[in-house]
Amino acid sequence: MSALFDENQLRCLEAVLDTLIPPDDYPGAWQAGVGDYLLRQLTGDLAHLQTSYRAFLRCLDAEAQYLHQCDFADLANDERSDLLHRIEKNRLETNWPIEPGAFFAQVVEHCGEGFYSDPGNGGNREGIAWQMIGFEVRG
Amino acid sequence: MSDYDAIVVGSGAGGGVAAAVLAEAGKSVLLLERGRALSFEQVGRDHLRNQRLAIYGHNAGPDIEGNPRTLDPASFPMPVGERQGEHRILRPHEPGYQNNAACVGSGTRVYAGQAWRFMPQDFRMASEYGVPAGSSLADWPIGYEDLLPYYERIEWEIGVCGDHRSMTHLPAYARPYPMPALPLPHKSSVHRRGLDALGWQGLRVPRLINSLPYNGRPACINCQHCVGYACPVDAKNGSHNTTIPRALESGNCSLRTEVMVERLMCSVGGAVTGVEIITADGSRESISADVVVLSCGAVETARLLLNSATAQEPGGIGNGSDQVGRHLQGHYYPGAVGLFPEQLYDGVGPGASLATCEFNHGNEGLIGGGMLTDEDIVTPITFWKRDYPPDVPRWGPAAKQFMRENFCRINDIKGPVQEIPNPDARVQVNPAVRDRYGIPVAHLSGTSHPETVRTASFMRERAIEWLRASGAIAVWGRKPQQYLSGGQHQAGTCRMGEDPAHSVVDNFCRVHSQSNLFVADGSPHVTNGGFNPVETIMALAWRTSEHIVANW
Ligand SMILES: Cc1cc2nc3c(=O)[nH]c(=O)nc-3n(C[C@H](O)[C@H](O)[C@H](O)COP(=O)(O)OP(=O)(O)OC[C@H]3O[C@@H](n4cnc5c(N)ncnc54)[C@H](O)[C@@H]3O)c2cc1C
Ligand code: SF4
Predict the structure, then answer these.
(1) DSSP string, B329-345
(2) pLDDT digits (tens, 9 = 90+) for A109-138
């Protein structure tokens, strides 16, 4: 649990991040700590985005409910991807208080930052993303 | 009786040299720096907040709060910072601010130490090419020969490694570099293949880095965090570990940090008498000196002169001809990224392996040109943010796969373009916006000359050609746009010249209107070469400082 998001929102966030960087034989975004990165940033450099993040997660669930009668996190992988592609292109069925495509683009950036930047930022746990791509810190 | 013989304002590339030369000549020197002395740990290795990728901040100053600048929105192609009236207000790590750094050593604390001499032609651009409309292209009042002895001193005393025999674009070196070039990373064989196929001359990138133990410090251990970070073994030679310690060890220099020089104090007769400073706790002091040397970097030196207006010089010190702050330039850095079939990455830092100076001059229909080299090690997030191909998905399995398969098979080639200066690219002061000390901030306006963009476009094509000839299977990268340039290679705002009507400082970098005020940083550069500028800044500062001592 976090002070920023309720349990549903966290579940939705995990599902979004793992759709952006999905697990395979290497961890996906969530397991690699991108959630920790983001929660930290949302009380720091990205504090101004707290409300928008909550709105984004809420709307994503509403959109999933409208299209599939379930929460975003309960969708199958390809359904999640399809839905995020629609959001990216601002093709929506429900009303959004934020511009979905533009905000989604920011979420993609934040996810990459958490996954590929240094573990000191809270994500990329034990340098797992660097191990995956071959960036080795030796000195 | 003055408090000091000399005050040097700013402890970066130029200021460090000035402090060392003056103090070692027996002058009492006060070196003032607005930033802090930063340890290796304080600089840190935050991949999101450094002088290379400054998404949320940076690691070598200035502090991101309390040090704003304003920008004319027309100077930048995208909406940066925050709108405030007609201007945009920027924090130091935001694009368009034109930051270098602010700490003891400034940019030299975190640079990658590429150590280039300018070419003889770089000092006489107007004579070589004529003056294009709308530009203020001019010759320097001095030439390569004048700086040569100082280039050699920098190479030997501060410490440069390289292969002088490979520098065939320059007159033959009388003295080799004191240290051999750094070991070549694996990717150099790939880039060498391209050079050979094209018949282009390749050369080793000279660096202000110890390839062998030198000056009492160890050799480079080829780590993966060179450019934008501090050196883990102190093998990178910057002001903080060369010139400033020399100045301090002479017993004649004191360094004060977190001190902001607010303005210069002047006598009525055309001499400065000292400086007024504000310390970290907000208290003000006046300190007197017989000589003042400004080494604040091109933007801040201009700002300080403009903020020091007197009854005699109401437009700012040295600004009788409205030249202070104009001709701001830096380096366009065009290039392209290439994807190769084989692994390039081997983690051997700093990373850049080979350069070519085939295109610095003699490009048909163009004015000047620039050097090209492959890139230093790029961190994964920097690659992801800056170098990612535009036609590959940015999320989903394909994005992860792309990073996984290709991070080690990618390299970019790029280089600094000699910019064509124009008087409208300029620094002014904006009294409506104040920094944390209450001092009017720098206001930036104007844009690059179209010839700069043209040369940059040409150089980008050459980078693509080199990548392809080396075997790249895909090549991408943005085309150069028009914008105001300056940044880490900022220069030109206190132009050097014989005629006070068209310049700010004379050919020994003394402000024309003041008998004892000198500039020792990138500001006097009439043009900025097609090379990273720091060795020239240091060499010029050395020459200026020696002149000050000789004529005391
Ligand atoms: C990441 C990075 C990589 C780089 N790599 C290279 C490279 O490989 N090769 C190369 O040639 N160049 C490189 N550079 C650029 C190089 O660092 C600069 O060209 C050089 O430092 C400029 O020297 P300068 O003397 O003009 O000013 P600076 O070195 O910027 O020094 C100015 C100093 O003055 C201080 N100051 C300003 N105003 C005041 C005031 N009012 N009161 C008190 N103090 C003040 C500032 O805080 C600063 O410390 C790099 C820079 C960076 C940041
Ligand atoms: S590559 Fe690393 S060890 Fe070598 S000089 Fe640069 S920072 Fe120091």
Answers:
(1) B--B--EEEEE-SS---
(2) 999 999 999 999 999 999 999 999 999 999
Residue B521: CB within 6 Å of ligand 1? yes
User: B411 CB near a chain A CB, below 8 Å?
Assistant: no
The pLDDT-based confidence of A16 (bands split at 50, 70, 90) is very high
Q: How far apart are CA B181 and CA B477, in angstroms?
A: 29
Q: What's CA B191's distance to the chain center, in Å? A: 26
Neighbouring residues of B260: CB distance < 8 A, sequence distance ≥ 6:
B34, B277, B278, B279, B437, B439
Mean of the per-residue pLDDT values of chain B: 98
**Tokens 């450019």 sit at which residue?**
B227
| Ligand that lies nearest to the alpha carbon of residue B373, given by its number in the listed order | 1
User: What pLDDT does residue B506 have?
Assistant: 98
B70 bridge partner residues: B89, B443
CB proximity B57 to A under 8 Å: yes
Compute the average pLDDT of residues B108-112: 97
Distance CA A132, CA B399 (A): 13
Statement: residue A1 has pLDDT above 70:
no
Residue in B231, B348, B353 to alter for ligand 2 test, most ligand atoms within 8 A of Cβ? B231
Cis before residue B62, ω within 30 degrees of 0? Answer: yes
The pLDDT, as a whole number, for residue A3 is: 83
Output phi, psi for B298, to 5 deg: -60, -35
Q: Number of A:B CB contacts under 8 A?
A: 90
pTM of this prediction?
0.98
Ligand 1 contact, B304 CB (< 6 A): yes
